[in-house]
């Protein structure tokens, strides 16, 4: 029940905000999300679960469970939302609707990371759509309406694929419970079930499972996103208000990674080898094209948007490698643990980067072209240092959190998909080029006259950065604090995929 | 309170309203609300009683009526009729609330509305085909009068078209029923009796399409749907709500509970054709809604699209499919009522336009945020987002479709996507326009009145309740589908 309490907690906050009048909404929402973080960190423990007999007539029981892995994502959600809400408040955003929608989004995310049955999972997955759409459309930049529409339609398109795929599974396997499906797949019975369920069509069970897996993969790929399903992302990330972009990149993209790791891998275990090579090369395309596109941008937000595409590409590579037939258990462990670390750490780092953008936009009254800034190090040394740490973490400097995930991924992926992994490593170099170029253009060189009067970080802004930097430094030097929670789940997953003979 | 009251309350209410003296005309809306409440309470108590005890026989009333024809006054409230009666009551309450400020001849208006509600209850309860037909016809005349006297855009044309379609369809129904009556040896019109008669296959092959088509024209089957959008647009708000919310369901209900059980072999033969027409309706309705500028037309065509799901579930004819079809009847009734209520009453009364481009100027999000929030939630429900009733219904139909016609699934998936697109388009134009398109200073508009708020909250709450906790509704529907008359048409994959 604590889990239910956590999931509904932000929603209640949103309702209170929505119905209240004359409240300092920014402050209230910040306080509420701080309370949410406390609930997530102190009251919720890995292993908690609750379930609801939803349609007893057809045997549908909805389950929610927080294992170690989900718990990490719950904490990530709570932290990123808190930072996003606080940053909105600090930059003068006090609309009721805005803060209420952010809290609705948070509720949906809690649900996505804990649902263990397709129906509630999909409910929460779709529940993110309308709040995110409205946040982009109503509070975004000049081109926001088109960006929001494209975001909505592409994500909805992906969801339809997901829905159709899982309904086919319900029909043949008789369940949409992720664990039951994974158990069936682990015993190699899902193919038989499909063949039996669709006997009328005369199709081969394995082909059907591959088709369904493709449908589900498309749904997930739009969310992460994987090239070529990424076209909604740059404009949506760029046009959304920067704190909302934190949510989009820090959390909504993680819904996709989480689904890939925690649903796609176990449920489609029987046909994973088919996907290893294509998925690995799609990951390469995501990494390389993301980095190249980022290099070409002059708009800071678009650059960081493509940088997100690039960083999540590594997670896709790891999942592809983990599914490859040839990979051994240790390599899989490394790749999958790497995925978890990369997802969590990218969430924190991207939030820090977009917090920097929020502050730049606030000081410059909405500018984000790279040419508008220059020489800021002299005016804003603390800001320069804080953003510098985030940038170096993002390009994978050892000792900071970005390094460890990427290292584990390459380590695990190399044996299964050596060629693709090698190309991806080259992506790291490109990442360094565009991130360092951003640092140079914004902070070094002569001080632009327009920037000459900007104040350095205020105390609350410093506090936000301090929290994020702590969360970047700690896992960098002590990754065990994350792995300790993630590893048991990863090992369980591997047991499903590669039963010990 | 027996389910009989859900039939008696509306007719008694209609009579009471008619008998009101002119100076007490203002009381008519109160009486109408009370009668609708009574209908709802009778239906709800029937539902609860049935849920608590599905083993006992269903409530029924069987009286001598026209012995010469063998037609009896036979009513029964099984698991299919009860939730639909409840839907009828809820839409009636909302319809009356959304018409709270009618000043033009309120007594006539509310008595006609109540007559429709009573006729609908009668159709849902009838177990005698002739009796059902009589109630079915009772609905047509008030519908015509409501549109002609209180309607708007092109009302004579809309009302005439709707009535001509209804009468033509009724002729087909009468023909089908007469044929069945004659072929069964003129024994009577009892539906279960006719279903057990076992008509020869050759007879069923032509009798089924006649009877089925007669019913589903009223459900807006493609390509006989064109009366629906024009009729909805022309009708006053309460009439659009009743029309889309419950009257269209009468056609689907008749097809499901009369045409299909009577002629199972004919149904088996024509099943694929019905499925194809249903999908054509889903796609045609959705694509047309994408191009319309009148908000009520958009909603009208979305109704055509959503009604396609009902027909599709019936064509799939598995447990999932039929369950989904009935759920969609309930769900669409609620959601269409809500959309027409918001568009026709809340928005139109304040902006005096339904043109999507003209609505952009008002920027409802700034000038009337409560309406914008309500319309957003209603749109989410209409898109079939999970959590709302539409999702449960559409998912059930889709599972049924996977079982029966998997090759149609991609087309329906496309339909769902286009539904998202046109709903979002209408939502953005009305509530969240581009800054450039809207007036710089928001127009001051009166805020929502209590009847509007109550009706919106009621309909949204019911849609959410079905979406989040569908199991009681599904139990009831399952109970209804267990009836012996459905066994010959149920496909078992």
Any overview of this molecule?
The complex is a heterodimer of chains A (501) and B (493). Chain A is mainly alpha-helical and 501 residues long. Chain A has two domains: 127 residues, no CATH class; 370 residues, no CATH class. Chain A is built from 21 helices and two strands. The model of chain A has no long low-confidence stretch (mean pLDDT 91). Chain B has 493 residues and is mainly α. Chain B contains 20 helices and two strands. Chain B has a two-stranded antiparallel ribbon with strand order 1-2. In chain B, helix 13 packs across helix 20. The longest helix of chain B is centred in the C-terminal third of the chain and has 33 residues. Chains A and B meet through strand 1, helix 5, helix 6 and helix 7 of A and helix 16, helix 17, helix 18 and helix 20 of B.
In total, the number of strands of chain A is 2
- Termini separation of chain A (Å)? 38 Å
Q: Low-confidence stretches of chain B at least 5 residues in length (pLDDT < 50)?
A: none
- What's the helical proportion of residues of chain B? over 70%
Query: Which structural class fits the helix and strand makeup of chain B?
Result: mainly alpha
Overall average pLDDT of chain A: 91
* SS content category of chain A: mainly alpha
Biggest interface, residues from each chain: A-B, 37 and 34 residues
């Amino acid at each position: 029940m604590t889990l239910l309490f956590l999931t509904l907690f932000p929603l209640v906050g949103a309702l209170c905000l929505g119905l209240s009048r004359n409240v300092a909404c920014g402050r209230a929402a910040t306080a509420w999300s701080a309370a949410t973080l406390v609930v997530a960190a102190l009251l919720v423990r890995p292993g908690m679960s609750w379930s609801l007999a939803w349609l007893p007539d057809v045997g549908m029981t909805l389950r929610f469970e927080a294992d170690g892995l989900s718990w990490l994502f719950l904490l990530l959600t709570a932290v990123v939302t808190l930072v996003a809400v606080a940053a909105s408040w600090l930059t003068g955003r006090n609309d009721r609707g805005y803060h209420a929608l952010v809290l609705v989004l948070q509720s949906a995310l809690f649900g996505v990371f804990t649902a263990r049955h397709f129906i509630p999972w999909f409910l929460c997955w779709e529940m993110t759509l309308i709040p995110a759409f409205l946040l982009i459309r109503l509070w975004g930049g000049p081109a926001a309406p088109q960006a929001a529409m494209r975001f909505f339609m592409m994500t909805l398109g992906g969801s339809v694929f997901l829905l159709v795929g899982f309904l086919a599974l319900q029909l043949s396997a008789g369940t949409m419970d992720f664990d039951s499906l994974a158990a069936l797949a682990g015993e190699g019975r899902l193919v038989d079930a499909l063949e039996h369920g669709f006997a009328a069509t005369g199709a081969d069970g394995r082909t059907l499972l591959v088709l369904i897996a493709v449908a589900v993969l498309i749904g997930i790929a739009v969310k992460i996103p994987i090239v070529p399903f990424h076209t909604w992302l740059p404009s949506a990330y760029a046009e959304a208000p920067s704190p909302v972009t934190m949510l989009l990149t820090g959390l909504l993209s993680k819904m996709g990674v989480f689904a890939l790791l925690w649903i796609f891998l176990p449920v489609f275990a029987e046909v994973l080898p088919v996907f290893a090579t294509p998925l690995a090369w799609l990951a390469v395309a995501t990494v390389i094209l993301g980095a190249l596109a980022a290099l070409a941008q002059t708009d800071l937000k678009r650059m960081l948007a493509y940088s997100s595409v690039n960083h999540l590409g590594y997670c896709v590579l790891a999942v592809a490698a983990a599914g490859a037939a040839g990979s051994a258990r240790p390599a899989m462990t490394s790749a999958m643990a790497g995925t978890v670390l990369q997802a969590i750490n990218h969430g924190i780092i991207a939030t820090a980067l977009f917090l920097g953008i929020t502050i730049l936009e606030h000081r410059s009254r909405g500018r984000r072209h790279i040419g508008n800034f220059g020489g800021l190090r002299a005016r804003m040394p603390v800001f320069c240092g804080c953003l510098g740490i985030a940038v170096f973490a993002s390009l994978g400097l050892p000792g900071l959190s970005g390094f460890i995930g990427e290292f584990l991924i390459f380590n695990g992926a190399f044996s299964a998909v050596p060629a693709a992994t090698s190309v991806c490593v080259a992506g790291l170099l490109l990442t360094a080029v565009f991130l360092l170029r951003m640092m140079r253009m914004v902070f070094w060189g002569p001080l632009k006259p327009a920037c000459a009067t900007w104040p350095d970080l205020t105390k609350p802004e410093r506090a936000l950065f301090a929290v994020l930097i702590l969360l970047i430094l700690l896992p960098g030097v002590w990754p065990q604090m994350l792995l300790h929670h993630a590893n048991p789940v990863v090992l369980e997953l591997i047991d499903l995929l590669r039963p010990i003979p | 309170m027996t389910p009989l009251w859900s039939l008696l309350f509306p007719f008694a209410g209609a009579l009471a309203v008619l008998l009101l003296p002119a100076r007490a005309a203002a009381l008519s809306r109160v009486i109408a609300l009370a009668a609708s409440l009574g209908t709802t309470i009778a239906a709800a108590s029937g539902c609860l009683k049935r849920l608590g005890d599905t083993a006992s026989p269903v409530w029924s009333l069987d009286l001598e009526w026209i012995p010469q024809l063998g037609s009896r006054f036979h009513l029964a409230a099984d698991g299919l009729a009860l939730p639909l009666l409840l839907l009828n009551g809820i839409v009636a309450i909302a319809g009356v609330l959304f018409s709270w400020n009618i000043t033009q001849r309120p007594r006539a208006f509310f008595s006609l509305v109540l007559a429709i509600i009573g006729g609908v209850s009668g159709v849902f309860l009838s177990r005698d085909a002739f009796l059902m037909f009589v109630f079915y016809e009772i609905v047509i005349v008030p519908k015509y009068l409501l549109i002609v006297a209180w309607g708007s855009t092109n009302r004579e044309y809309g009302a005439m078209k709707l009535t001509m379609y209804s009468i033509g369809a009724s002729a087909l129904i009468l023909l089908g029923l007469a044929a069945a009556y004659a072929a069964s040896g003129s024994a009577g019109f009892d539906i279960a009796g006719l279903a057990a008669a076992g008509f020869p296959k050759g007879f069923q092959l032509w009798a089924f399409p006649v009877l089925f088509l007669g019913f589903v024209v009223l459900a807006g089957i493609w390509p006989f749907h064109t009366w629906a959008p024009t009729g909805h647009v022309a009708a006053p708000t309460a009439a659009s709500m009743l029309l889309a919310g419950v009257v269209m369901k009468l056609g689907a209900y008749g097809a499901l509970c009369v045409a299909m059980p009577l002629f199972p072999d004919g149904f088996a033969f024509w099943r694929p054709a019905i499925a194809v027409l249903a999908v054509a309706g889903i796609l045609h309705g959705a694509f047309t809604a994408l191009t319309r500028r009148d908000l009520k037309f958009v909603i009208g065509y979305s109704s055509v699209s959503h009604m396609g799901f009902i027909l599709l579930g019936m064509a799939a004819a598995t447990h999932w499919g039929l369950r989904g079809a009935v759920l969609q009847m309930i769900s669409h009734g609620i959601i269409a009522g809500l959309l027409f209520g918001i568009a026709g009453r809340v928005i139109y009364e304040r902006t005096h336009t339904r043109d999507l481009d003209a609505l952009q100027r008002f920027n409802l999000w700034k000038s009337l945020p409560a309406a914008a929030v309500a319309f957003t939630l209603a749109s989410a429900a209409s898109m079939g987002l999970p959590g709302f009733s539409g999702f449960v219904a559409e998912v059930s139909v889709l599972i049924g479709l996977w079982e029966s016609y998997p090759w149609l699934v991609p087309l329906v998936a496309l339909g769902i996507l286009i539904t998202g697109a046109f709903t979002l388009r209408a939502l953005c134009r009305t509530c969240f326009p581009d800054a450039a398109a809207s007036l710089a200073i928001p127009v001051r508009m009166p805020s929502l009145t209590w009847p509007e708020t109550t009706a919106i909250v009621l309909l949204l709450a019911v849609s959410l309740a079905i979406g989040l906790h569908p199991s009681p509704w599904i139990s009831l529907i399952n109970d209804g589908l267990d009836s012996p008359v459905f066994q010959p048409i149920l496909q078992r994959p």
